[in-house]
Design a protein that fits this description.
The protein has 267 residues and is an alpha/beta fold. Helices cover 46% and strands 9% of the residues. Strands 2-1-3-4-5 form a 5-stranded parallel beta sheet, with helices on both faces.
Length: 267
């Protein structure tokens, strides 16, 4: 992500390795000030991490020999929104492990002792937050967001990749008052700011709902909706659909539905 708010959100990286040497290198590669690194000890902890937070990417030490390694690696097809990366020393006998990573749809394999310096850039550059923000950096034409304030607000919102956005924090970041932001954002027939924030959250929800490993309750939880009912009411209010339809609709479908009469709220 290379936009003006590319450093705004700390990506969540889940990394499994029982080897202390590898865990130490991961902590160095993904420092707290830049990322949220979760280091589960087993398959149950790994699964729990995916249901506790929006996970941007996952790493699996496939050279560790741990009994849970391939159970964890086998989660990759369940969570295609989060690219999986293998970690290996690439010794002669590890060829089958690399081949298995490819068969499971891993995004790449990082070589222990070689790729540490570039690991954060390689992983976060393909993480969910980066891909989401890059895909939506330019406001869709149907939203009629063309002024400087509108575009900067949109870039801030999509940089959060569906996480909650506080209008006060947004206003401070772009250097205006909340009142000025709300008034100027919705000028000339553009959608309300709160409606656009909700739309972006639903675009993220739709992408996450395509993961076989998630149901609607999981999606609501990782995006910090109050409940699955809250996600449901938001979907019906903002794009006029039930949440069960999110997994089959594209972003362009949702934006089109939004522009057909759902862009203005009473608030």
């Amino acid at each position: 992500m290379t936009g003006p708010f590319h450093d705004l959100v700390a990506q969540t990286i889940v990394a499994f390795s029982p080897r202390e040497r590898v865990r130490a290198s991961l902590k160095a590669a993904f420092p707290r000030r830049r990322c949220r690194l979760v280091l589960p000890r087993n398959a149950a902890d790994f699964d729990a991490a995916f249901h506790a937070d929006l996970v941007d990417a996952a790493l699996v030490d496939v050279a560790s020999g741990h009994e849970d390694t391939w159970t964890i690696a086998g989660r990759a097809p369940d969570f295609p929104s989060a690219p999986f990366f293998g970690i290996t020393s690439l010794r002669g006998g590890e060829g089958p492990a690399v081949a298995q990573c490819a068969a499971l749809g891993f995004a790449d394999v990082l070589v222990e002792g070689v790729d540490e310096a570039a690991a954060r850039e390689l992983v976060t550059g393909r993480g969910f937050t980066t891909r989401f923000a890059d895909a939506l950096r330019v406001p869709p034409a149907g939203l009629a967001l063309g002024t400087g304030v509108q575009v900067r607000a949109w870039e801030y919102i999509v940089a959060h990749a569906g996480r909650r956005v506080r209008t006060g924090a947004l206003a401070r970041r772009i250097g205006v008052t909340r009142e000025h932001l709300s008034r100027t954002f919705a000028a000339d027939g553009a959608p309300n700011l709160k409606r656009v924030i909700d739309l972006v959250r639903l675009l993220a929800a739709a992408e996450l709902a395509k993961n076989p490993g998630y149901d609607i309750r999981d999606v609501a939880a990782v995006l910090d909706f109050a409940s699955s009912s809250h996600l449901s009411s938001t979907a019906q209010r903002v794009v006029g659909i039930k949440p069960a339809s999110l997994s089959r609709l594209r972003s362009t479908d949702l934006i089109l539905r939004f522009t057909r009469g759902h862009g203005r709220s009473r608030a």
